[in-house]
Design brief:
The complex is a heterotrimer of chains A (269), B (351) and C (545).
Chain A lengths: L1 H7 L2 H27 L1 H21 L1 H4 L16 H10 L21 H14 L8 H4 L6 H11 L1 H4 L6 E2 L5 E2 L7 H10 L14 H14 L17 H24 L9
Antiparallel strand pairs in A: 1-2
Chain B lengths: L1 H10 L30 H4 L1 H31 L5 E4 L3 E4 H27 L6 E4 L7 H18 L5 H13 L1 H7 L22 E3 L16 E6 L9 H8 L1 E5 L8 H5 L5 E5 L11 E3 L4 E3 L6 E3 L5 E4 L8 E2 L1 E3 L5 E3 L16
Antiparallel strand pairs in B: 1-2, 4-5, 5-6, 6-7, 7-12, 8-9, 9-10, 10-11, 13-14
Helix pairs in contact in B: 3-4
Chain C lengths: L16 H13 L1 H8 L3 E2 L7 H20 L8 E3 L11 E3 H11 L4 H28 L8 H23 L4 H16 L4 H9 L8 H31 L13 E6 H26 L5 H4 L18 H9 L5 E3 L2 E3 L1 H18 L1 H9 L15 H21 L1 H7 L4 H40 L1 E8 L5 E6 L3 H8 L24 H14 L10 H11 L3
Antiparallel strand pairs in C: 1-4, 2-3, 5-6, 7-8
Helix pairs in contact in C: 3-5, 3-10, 4-5, 5-6, 5-10, 6-9, 7-8, 12-13, 12-15, 15-17
Classes of the chains: A mainly alpha (269), B alpha+beta (351), C mainly alpha (545).
Cofactor (chain B): [2Fe-2S] cluster
Family (chain B): Belongs to the Rieske iron-sulfur protein family.
Protein name (chain B): Cytochrome bc1 complex Rieske iron-sulfur subunit
Chain lengths: 269, 351, 545
């Protein structure tokens, strides 16, 4: 447990942050410059940062340090960007409950407004990936089949062909993607939370991400079709084998007992 | 059946061996009491119960007929692309569900009817049938052996050694033609497994966009897949070539690279490793960006990308091959040659 | 048959039409003699005797549905672009084999059902064979005269696995392609000739264009053909040997007690076919299997986590997964032990049980015919060996699914792998010892029951205040059942010096055999069954009678 924290403290963590910062400074600048034009917008922004700072001091500073510089219990947040905050806090992963191989998803603790304020504060520490807008992550009009190909190339190795998740080393895992909102999917690809690698726009353009989100929406959502019947977890032959043994062979054994058993006698001694 | 004749012949034989005799001392408390007396079922003594059973059987057969008609109706009426929601199964193909259930019922009720008939209406009196030893009697055995010897003698198989041995020789040689014919199943291995499509100056093409990659595209913590310039899905040998040429790119901080050669072969911390596992060739790309480990989803071989692709867990026997890369004049990443060693699973001639 | 009777006019005085047809056939095929021996053949009633029928019938279901699938499946690796109705695949490049599998699933009416029946029936077939084999093993039904039939059955199981694996490979989806890639690695690991075998099988480098067209006849013709032959031989031998039976009143080594083939077993067994088929059809209506449309077409550079074979190959997968990565390179050559050892172990593990009947009969020197089944407790060493084998098998099955165990039980995949590595060696030993103790305990309990009767749970208070539990004496039938088994003496080498003073040479194999035989019948491995004297002494003392 301590080991993981130590790894987060790894000198690399700061460099990751630095590179992110370099890579998206331009984009961030573009995103922020129009808002600077209006005075009250910028004051609203600074207000949000102020609020976010207060929230941060209460909920996050213990692990990530008072200025977001990181401690032995949590990585530095300088330059991780608002997208990372929105993903981590929005999926309930942060604040983390307890140390472990991996921080699991849980019920989120902060309200949407609070998450925005936190994100604004973290973004103010150093430029990083920005929370995507609806037009960025919306799967409308995306190419589902292309998304499938991209998913199988980039994602299925960890998340399974249908997004049902899978194991990584030493107790870590790639979570199932059932019910993950398009926004969070987008942010995860963009920022690479925990041990997941990132897929920045430079190598996986926005359009590709939309295709992937559209594919997941088709094969891994409440309304996904499973023509053949029960999906059995969508895990492949292991769950099929288990089902075959329990229900297939189980039914057969019940039948053999019925077929071979004696019919009740008129009087039984 | 020949077995029948044998068993009939044996019927007349004296008891040779087998179980202890059924006749036991009278005071034996463990003696076999013999088959228990047959007890009647309700259906055997009560005709009304028997009638009820018959009606049940008939009902089952009738259900089967109805189900078959329903099967045909479903086949005709339900379009193949219609989906329905069935709790708790989910959104499923209406046709598959309807056909499967009706077919299942049609078959199951035939079986259930037949079994119920057998269980309730056919005699359930147990009958004992005798067994006979399978081995032949000594007389039969000696007769057969005698005949065999006569036959063998008449053939001269033992005496005419020249004829016999040449026959063996001929029979041993003739299958060779069959083996020789298999030669054209495939080409000889040669050095095919040593080479991939990578070569000096080939740019690294991004899988997702099929655009050449630049160093600045690849950030620390990201994972990118690349294939050699000039390959495309439409090519006839694409599958065979990508099976060897698939490449993964990650960027590390140069000071985190523990292996000297790996650092030399990287470009600004960007390292390019074969995506094909050295165990049995699965694409290995479960990259953990914080630990720099890649895990193979097939057999869990784990490699450390910050240490020359060394194996740190699992059944793989050697490190992942690394491709030497650099940025060319236009700022694109390119290979500086083919992989120095064969990619993928090890083999005898690999060395 | 009866249709033939329509041709002849029904004249009075002539035999009924059916009989005349039978006469006709008898004159050419000898059907009466055949029927005499078999029509009223006796089959004992026991649910575990129907397990083989589960296999037989699921095999027939597989053949029927398989023939249907061949009408639509294209065994070709030519690349095509999909334009069918399944939207998430439209425009995707795939092999013709995969495309035709999608067509069967989405365009052929009922095609999906038949595909699922085919695959579910295959799983049930293998489950059935496994269970059947275990039943035969633990009851000692494989003993003389049935060793050859055991071997036939074992070969059917083995070929069933192979046929299943080739079938798994045919649709050319991402999982099956991954499986074939593994097979390539296996071929390559074979010393000296590995690369040649691989090139010849794949028609060049992996994956090439030849493999699926080559696997296809193997899957639909060669392997099922051999299996059909073995199956027929298996059934003929079952008929010829007559069925074994469990010990009980009236059941001896010289008889077989049960119901006649005509009519009872004709109806029961015939009906059972429909029951099996019906259950598999319903299974295929409610549960999907191998959803190739989500798995996707095979590309050698793509993979999904949770890449596993069907369950019957799971233990082989486990062997491969937990093997350490040993590789020896010397003099310019590489010995890929990390792959080669598990692949050699895979048949060895299976043959350990496949050849067991011959090993046991050599150890025990038992040359008698056996038609009364053993109660597993009365053969503790065999039972313990069987459980040990099952333990090893199951632990490897866990190893084969280590990633899913990890995610579903929140464990570390590395820890599971280590558990399996150690468990494969330790587990069977522990299972062996524990099972043997349990068997001996049960033998003791049987002895106790015979001598003291059944515990009724009724507590009686005697006049002087003592409480005793009332034991009910067993019926004659139960007494017989609990004491009918043999308890032979272990194999003795014989005196080292014979009566003429000549020293006998004792071969090491004899020593081994004597030692092993003691493991079966030696003092510590058997609880002597109650004798008549013991029984009389105790029963008369208690005055129960």
């Amino acid at each position: 447990m301590k080991k993981l924290s130590a790894r987060r403290r790894h000198p690399l963590a700061a460099l990751v942050v630095l590179l992110f910062a370099l890579a998206v400074t331009g984009g961030l600048y573009a995103a922020f410059s129009p808002s600077e034009a209006k005075a009250d917008d910028s004051s609203a922004q600074s207000l949000a940062i102020e609020e976010g700072k207060k929230l941060y001091a209460v909920g996050c500073a213990t692990c990530h340090g008072t200025g977001g510089q990181g401690t032995s219990d949590g990585p530095s947040l300088v330059g991780v960007g608002s997208a990372a905050v929105d993903f981590q806090v929005g999926t309930g992963r942060m604040p983390a409950q307890q140390p472990g191989a991996q921080v699991p998803k849980k019920k989120k603790i902060y309200s949407d407004a609070e998450i925005e304020q936190l994100a604004a504060y973290i973004a103010s520490l150093g430029a990083g990936p920005v929370t995507p807008t609806k037009s960025q992550y919306s799967p409308d009009g995306a190419d589902v089949a292309k998304g499938g190909e991209l998913f199988r190339t980039n994602c299925a190795q960890c998340h399974n062909f249908g997004g049902k998740g899978g194991a990584l080393t030493n107790g870590k895992y790639a979570p199932a993607l059932d019910g993950v909102s398009p926004k969070h999917l987008y942010e995860a690809m963009q920022t690479g939370p925990q041990n997941m690698p990132s897929f920045p726009d430079t190598v996986m353009p926005e359009k590709n991400k939309q295709d992937i989100i559209a594919y997941l929406d088709t094969v891994n959502s409440d309304k996904s079709k499973s023509p053949g019947g029960l999906e059995l977890g969508g895990l492949g032959p292991v769950s099929e084998g288990l089902f075959g043994w329990i229900f297939g062979m189980g039914a057969m054994i019940v039948l053999t007992i019925w077929v071979a058993a004696r019919t009740a006698k008129a009087k039984k001694s | 059946m020949s077995s029948h004749e044998i068993s009939e012949a044996e019927e007349k034989l004296p008891e040779a061996r087998g179980a202890e005799s059924a006749v036991r001392p009278v005071d034996d408390p463990f003696a076999d009491p013999g088959l228990p007396p047959h007890e009647h079922r309700k259906q055997d003594i009560d005709e009304r119960a028997a009638k009820r059973s018959e009606r049940t059987v008939a009902l089952l057969f009738t259900v089967s007929m109805v189900a078959t008609i329903a099967f045909i109706a479903a086949y005709v009426a339900i379009p193949v692309d219609r989906y329905i929601y069935v709790f708790p199964i989910g959104h499923i193909s209406a046709l598959n569900f309807a056909l499967g259930v009706t077919l299942g019922i049609a078959l199951f009720t035939i079986g259930a009817g037949a079994v119920h008939w057998a269980r309730t209406l056919m005699s359930d009196e147990e009958i004992a049938d005798e067994r006979h030893p399978i081995e032949a009697s000594p007389e039969v055995k000696s007769k057969v052996l005698e005949e065999f010897h006569t036959g063998a003698k008449e053939s001269g198989f033992g005496r005419r050694k020249l004829a016999r041995n040449t026959l063996f020789g001929a029979l041993a040689l003739v299958p060779l033609s069959g083996i020789v014919l298999l030669r054209d199943l495939g080409p000889l291995p040669g050095t095919k497994l040593r080479h991939t499509k990578w070569a000096r100056g080939k740019r690294l093409m991004n899988y997702n966009t099929m655009q050449p990659l630049r160093p600045e595209d690849i950030s620390v913590g990201s994972l990118t897949f690349a294939m050699p310039e000039g390959m495309s899905e439409d090519q006839h040998d694409f599958q065979t070539e990508i099976a060897k040429a698939a490449l993964m790119l990650v960027r590390l901080q140069p000071e985190n690279i523990k292996d000297k050669r790996e650092l030399d072969w990287s470009h600004e911390g960007i390292v390019a490793f074969s995506k094909i596992c050295t165990h049995v060739g699965c694409p290995i790309n479960l990259y953990e960006q914080q630990t720099h480990h890649v895990l193979c989803p097939c057999h869990q071989s784990t490699f450390d990308l910050s240490d020359g692709g060394r194996v740190i867990f699992g059944p793989a026997g050697h490190a992942l091959p690394q491709l030497r890369i650099r940025a060319n004049d236009q700022g694109y990443l390119e290979a500086m040659g083919d992989f120095p060693e064969p990619v993928g699973p090890a083999y005898w001639e690999r060395g | 048959m009866s249709t033939a009777s329509d041709s002849g006019a029904q004249r009075r005085g002539k035999a009924p039409a059916g009989e005349r047809v039978a006469d006709w056939a008898d004159g050419r095929l000898g059907v009466y003699s055949l029927a005499k021996a078999n029509m009223r053949k006796i089959f004992p009633d026991h649910w575990s005797f129907m397990l083989g029928e589960v296999c037989l019938y699921s095999f027939i279901v597989i053949i029927l549905t398989g023939v249907y699938l061949t009408l639509f499946f294209h065994p070709s690796m030519e690349e095509v672009t999909y334009h069918g109705p399944y939207v998430p695949m439209q425009g995707v490049k795939m092999s013709e084999a995969f495309a035709s599998t999608l067509d069967i699933s989405f365009e052929v009416r009922g095609g999906l059902l038949i595909r699922q029946i085919h695959h579910w029936a295959a799983l049930v077939f293998l489950c059935g064979m496994f269970t059947h084999m275990m039943r035969v093993f633990f009851t000692g039904a494989f003993r003389k005269p049935r060793e050859i039939n055991w071997l036939f059955g074992f070969l059917l199981f083995f070929l069933g696995m192979m046929t299943g694996f080739t079938g798994y490979s045919l649709p050319d989806d991402l999982l099956s392609g991954t499986g074939l890639r593994f097979i390539e690695g296996v071929f390559l690991s074979i010393p000296v000739v590995g690369t040649y075998i691989s090139m010849f099988v794949f028609g060049g480098e992996f994956p090439g264009m030849d493999l699926i067209p080559r696997l296809y006849p193997v899957h639909v013709l060669l392997l099922p053909g051999i299996m059909l032959g073995l199956l027929v031989a298996h059934l003929i031998l079952v008929f010829y040997h007559k069925h074994t039976q469990y010990p009980g009143a009236g059941k001896t080594e010289k008889n077989v007690v049960g119901m006649p083939l005509l009519p009872v077993y004709m109806a029961k067994a015939g009906g059972f076919f429909f029951l099996v088929f019906g259950v598999i059809a319903v299974l295929s209506a409610v549960a999907t299997i191998n959803p190739v449309w989500t798995i996707g077409p095979y590309r050698p550079d793509q993979v999904s986590t949770g890449a596993q074979p069907d369950w019957y190959m799971g233990f082989a997968e486990g062997l491969v997964r937990v093997m350490p990565g040993w590789e020896i390179t010397a003099w310019g050559h590489t010995l890929v032990l990390g792959v080669f050892i598990p692949i050699v172990l895979f048949p060895l593990v299976l043959f350990a049980i496949g050849l067991y009947p011959f090993i046991e009969s050599w150890i025990t020197g038992d040359k008698r015919e056996h038609h009364i089944l053993d109660r597993p407790r009365n053969a503790p060493t065999r039972t313990a060996f069987g459980v040990a084998w099952l333990t090893a098998y199951f632990i490897m099955l866990v190893g084969g699914g280590n990633d899913l165990w990890a995610t579903h039980f929140q464990l570390s995949i590395n820890a599971i792998t280590w558990f399996v590595r150690i468990g494969f060696f330790v587990g069977p030993v522990v299972a062996f010892i524990v099972t043997k103790r349990i068997c001996l305990g049960l033998q003791r309990r049987d002895k106790d029951k015979v001598l003291h009767g059944r515990e009724t749970g009724i507590i009686k208070r005697l006049p002087h205040g003592e409480f005793i539990e009332v034991h009910e004496p067993l019926s004659q039938e139960q007494l017989h059942t609990l004491t009918q088994h043999d308890q032979p003496d272990p194999y003795e080498i014989g005196p080292a010096v014979d009566e003429n003073g000549v020293k006998q040479k004792i071969k090491p194999s004899q020593k081994l055999r004597s030692k092993l035989s003691k493991g079966y019948y030696g003092e510590d491995n058997v609880i002597p069954k109650p004798t008549r004297e013991e029984y009389h002494e105790i029963t008369s003392g208690h005055g129960h009678h």
